[in-house]
Write a structure and sequence with these properties.
alpha+beta; seven-stranded antiparallel beta sheet; 10 helices; 41% helix; flat
């Protein structure tokens, strides 16, 4: 009888422990769901704030878009905004010159326009992509050229490899579980399937690539790497950027100088940085090439939400048009 009672007590203890474990597990899951819901609401608030700032910008459509605009660089509007149980920040990293890509990057608080970047699906130039990988990822010219040609082969409609490129035959020989898409890229991560691409290279050039811009490059916001990829000489880029930055020689500050229209750019740069006749002629050619503009239409929003108490972080990465229409949306918990 005593033995039976002991067995019953043991059985009841095991059931109680199992029930208790399940209850604790359910409570933890509920707590995680509640935490994520709070974080999502905070991150959404950051996206809505970005949409509001773009709506405010709608009243100034005739003006050029600069890095010092309230949508692009406004810590009071976008940095550490407290709402209820936590805070959100809308932020992006400022690009550096090519030799500085290993250095810690400055954080800016606002939106990042997509027109400062190269549209991957609208670029058919091997030279532009080659220079992008040279300047943006520090690749040797041959490696950069091979990668550029492989990207264009992956995207074009035929199955004929360009010189140094890669089509189906290469991927079959390499025993990859996929073949070239022969269509436009849908997300930048698809580049990882392309011959020669690595996660490290992609992360270095990601700030300079887009799939959602209008295809033209905003001269007021484009970084050094993007201008170099277009074929602009380094000395000329330095003069364009020096003019744009104003007296304090810094981007995204009050004294930034606007390029109001492309026709006046050579005169503005010449008056600030003294162009040679050759430089003036080349800059004029660039401004007449149809590749540039002085405004932007599409904007990336990176809204980072944190709770006052807790370690979880939710990052929402969205792309929206100037009218607030969402084109892309990604969420990442960490």
């Amino acid at each position: 009888m005593v033995v039976l009672v002991l067995w019953l007590l043991l059985f009841v203890s095991l059931i109680t422990a199992a029930v208790g474990f399940n209850v604790r597990l359910r409570l933890r899951q509920v707590g995680q769901l509640e935490t994520r819901e709070k974080l999502r609401n905070l991150a959404d608030a950051g996206v809505e704030k970005a949409r509001y700032m773009l709506a405010f910008r709608e009243d100034q459509k005739a003006k050029p878009d600069l890095l010092n605009g309230p949508w692009s660089a406004s810590p009071p509007d976008f940095r550490g905004i407290s709402i209820g149980p936590g805070i959100f920040s809308v932020e992006y990293q400022a690009e550096k010159r090519p030799k500085e890509w290993k250095d810690p990057e400055d954080m800016r608080y606002g939106l990042c326009d997509e027109e400062r970047k190269i549209h991957l699906n609208r670029t058919d130039s091997v030279l532009i992509l080659t220079r992008l990988f040279q300047y943006g990822a520090a690749l040797a010219v041959e490696e950069a050229r091979t990668l550029a040609r492989s990207i264009l082969d992956w995207r074009d409609e035929d199955d004929d490899p360009s010189e140094g490129g890669a089509e189906s035959r290469y991927y079959r020989a390499a025993r990859t579980p996929y073949l070239p898409k022969n269509r436009d890229f849908d997300v930048l991560e698809e580049l990882l399937y392309v011959r020669g691409m690595t996660p490290e290279i992609l992360e270095r050039v990601r700030p300079y690539l887009t799939l959602t811009s209008n295809g033209k490059i905003n001269l007021n916001t484009a970084p050094f790497v993007v201008l170099a990829a277009q074929g602009m000489p380094e000395t000329l880029i330095d003069k364009v950027l020096a003019t744009r930055r104003g007296r304090d020689a810094k981007d995204a500050t009050e004294d930034d100088v606007a390029f109001s229209n492309l026709e006046s750019v050579p005169d503005q740069v010449d008056s600030y940085a003294a162009l040679s006749d050759e430089e003036r002629a080349r800059l004029t050619d660039f401004m007449q090439s149809g590749a540039f503009d002085v405004r932007s239409e599409t904007f990336a929003v990176r809204s980072v939400a944190r709770l006052t108490r807790g370690r979880q972080v939710l990052t929402v990465s969205a792309v929206m048009r100037e009218n607030g229409e969402i084109l892309q949306w990604q969420e990442r918990f960490s």
